[in-house]
Amino acid sequence: MSIVLTNITKNFGKFAALNNIDLEIPEGELVALLGPSGCGKTTLLRIIAGLEQADSGRVVLNGEDKTEQHVSHRGIGFVFQHYALFRHMTVFDNIAFGLRVKPKKHRPSEADIAKKVHALLELVQLDWLHDRFPDQLSGGQRQRIALARALAVEPDVLLLDEPFGALDASVRKDLRQWLRNLHHELNVTSIFVTHDQEEAMEVASQVVVLNHGRIEQQGAPSDIYDHPANAFVSRFIGQTNIFAPDDHDAIWLQTSGLPVNDQNGKIAHVRPHDIEVEKASDEASAHAVLKDWQHLGALIRIELVKNAAHGESATVYAEMPNEQFKRLHLHRGDKVSLRIRNAHWFH
Amino acid sequence: MNAVTHTQTITKRALHDPAWLKWTIIAIALGFILLFLCLPLWIVITEAFAKGWSAYWSALGQPDAQAALRLTLLTALITVPLNTLLGLCAAWAITRFEFTGKSLLTTLIDLPFSVSPVISGLIFVLLFGAQGWFGPWLSDHDLKIIFAVPGIVLATLFITFPFVARELIPLMQEMGSEEEEAALSLGANGWQMFFQITLPNIKWALLYGVLLCNARAMGEFGAVSVVSGHIRGMTNTLPLHVEVSYNEYDFVGAFASASILAGLAIVTLVLKSVLEWRQGKH
Question: How far apart are CA A193 and CA A39, in angstroms?
């Protein structure tokens, strides 16, 4: 089921939540709507679901214009941020709800409903919880029950609002993997909203970056990381060092490998792993002082301080594998030389 | 866990009042309740039975008393369901929709509580009385509202409107609408959503509101007194009948009717605590 949005605009009073959004999502993708809080990503998800009405624009699901259709007729499954499980119903009744409210002629028999509910409970590996109430479940369990409930009506599109937002870090990691595998298994077009870029990069096959109600970039996670379309995306996805030519010594930038002459006022964005660090050997290279470092698992993040323009100092972050860092035998306060391998230039 | 209990003990000790203070405060509270709440109730009952059971029953059996009881029940039977519905609508509108004038509506819901009941009654006289805005039109069409049953129902409706809405609004605000949205996204229609998701979640608060609404509908004096005209056997409700009997030195009659209202109050209190207990459990 493909999703096509054209010209979606939504204002809340004077606040423009979404501004002329055009978005196309091919069938079977697992898409992350990524952006800082207040960027309009949840509003966009709710407009696709029909829980919110756009001021203008169309929502087309699988070639069918659903803009005017009620949420109950859109064939979507929605997983709410706080799960919204029916608190007065057991897990079983929660999942069965969507089947039991079907019109009489489409409604499966109780036996078929039971069969289906148990199959879904097995899919989310929680069949043993079928007679519990929502408040007897952990956050991760609720999340999976909410997902099973949404899947019960066999939606064409699965929409998830901050699906991991309210979970512990360790549970979150597990569930991310699990969601990706589940999507692989079911292959239902899915969109989830997140403000966590790491989560988006890890789970999604496509990432849509939103900011201030506009789409900044859409693409595969590696695309977005390696080729950010603009300064916002570069800054929002991953760590970035920012070098404004005005703030730095032109010669320093030149020797570090950043040719500044033909950039007309643009600013360089450099990923920490694109900075090579070596013990300073000669005066002709670009220098900085090693201030500190942190272990990020397999990588080391190195904090460097260099002199900037107007007598201020600037901090530069570099990253390299643990082993390589050990081989350099560096100490705090050592003078090092830098070489910048790659930079993106933005206004 | 241990740390928490520990802090609690310390706080408790720090907040510990001397024994004499504790017992003085308890004595004042209990004394007040006994003097101003239990004693009057006791007097109502003893006065009602002052001349024995048979006098009590014959007082209640009088046609006027019977008519007053019937009118009170009729008024409650009309106003309570109506106000349950109106209260639900108001609570739904305020907690589920965004519209201009919402905060004004929220404030206005409390109006019947903040206005003296006599004024409320007077409003209806000014609207529907012989000299009122709609008075000439009503008399032209031979309709009677003031000094008749419709006036009593209207005044009671006005006075008891806030009870249901006020119970539901905070609860529905706290619950949010996510469960309802979830039901819709699963294909439920509006009725299914309301009866299967909303109602089970608000039923105890709703019952609680209905109970308070009913108690007030049966017990309202001020507003009803203004619009009723005190026509014996016609427009006297039970509270008005109590007053009329008392003014005519029919003490057994007055207190016998009062004992019914007092009994209603006690039943309401018991049901209220049962509901509160159920609500606390959910």
Answer: 11
